[in-house]
């Protein structure tokens, strides 16, 4: 589940893409807390297929409900981005990388240079990089599969700061449909 602040109005219509630069990926269950979906004047819960999809949207692990993931993400971030960085510093970098103020930022990269867990846009669809394959995102799980040609370039949806963390060894959790045997990883 993700959080970008209050992005809906009183009629539960999405009225803006974000309110705050702290875009976090949370657990859907934490310490028995329950909350209404889209309560008036309260943050809007956004739901993702898996952690890799949340990363592609530019969210990082929550420091409260996913503290162990956050600490692992932060340690790898510090290693690849040159020194200590707290949530505010990470969020400043990610916010500049994920949007230009109006729309999502992407960049070109060779498919062979991308780590597992990154997302790319090809042929009008979003694809997860997973081993030697690309897996098409759908709202029900990963669908079609295709070979990942290493020299082919694509628009990368996952912000570069997160791609660097994935490349440094953070194994993003992916939906069980990504695996032939139905087991998840991460």
Give the helix/strand layout:
Layout: E1 2-3, E2 24-25, E3 45-46, H1 51-57, E4 60-61, H2 67-81, H3 87-98, E5 107-110, E6 119-122, E7 125-130, E8 133-138, E9 141-147, E10 153-156, H4 160-167
Parallel strand pairs: 2-4
Antiparallel strand pairs: 1-2, 1-3, 5-10, 6-7, 6-10, 7-8, 8-9
Report how far apart the termini are: 16 Å
Low-confidence stretches: none
Approximate shape: globular
Cα gyration radius (Å) = 16 Å
Largest sheet: 6 strands, antiparallel
Q: How many strand units?
A: 10
What is the chain-wise order of helices and strands?
Answer: EEEHEHHEEEEEEH
Q: Treating each run of at least 4 consecutive H or I residues as one helix, how many helices?
A: 4
| Percent helix range | 10-25%
Mean pLDDT: 87
Class by alpha and beta content:
alpha+beta
Q: Which percent band covers the strand fraction?
A: 15-25%
Strand order of the largest sheet: 5-10-6-7-8-9
Can you tell me the number of structural domains?
1
Can you tag this structure with a few keywords?
186 residues; 10 strands; alpha+beta; 23% helix; four-stranded mixed sheet; six-stranded antiparallel sheet; globular
């Amino acid at each position: 589940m993700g959080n970008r602040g209050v992005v809906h109005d009183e009629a539960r219509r999405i009225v803006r893409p974000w309110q705050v630069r702290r875009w976090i990926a949370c657990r859907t269950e934490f310490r028995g807390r329950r909350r209404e979906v889209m309560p008036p004047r309260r943050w809007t819960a956004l739901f993702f297929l898996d952690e890799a999809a949340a990363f592609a949207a530019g969210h990082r692990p929550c420091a409260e409900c996913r503290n162990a993931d956050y600490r692992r993400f932060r340690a790898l971030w510090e290693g690849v981005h040159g020194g200590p960085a707290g949530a505010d510093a990470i969020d400043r970098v990610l916010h500049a990388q994920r949007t230009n103020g109006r729309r999502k930022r992407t960049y070109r990269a060779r498919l062979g240079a991308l780590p597992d867990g990154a997302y790319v846009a090809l042929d009008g669809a979003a694809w997860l990089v997973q081993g030697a394959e690309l897996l098409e995102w759908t709202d029900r799980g990963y669908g079609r599969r295709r070979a990942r040609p290493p020299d082919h370039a694509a628009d990368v949806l996952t912000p570069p700061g997160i791609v660097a963390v994935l490349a440094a060894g953070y194994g993003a959790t992916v939906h069980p449909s990504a695996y032939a045997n139905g087991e998840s990883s991460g």
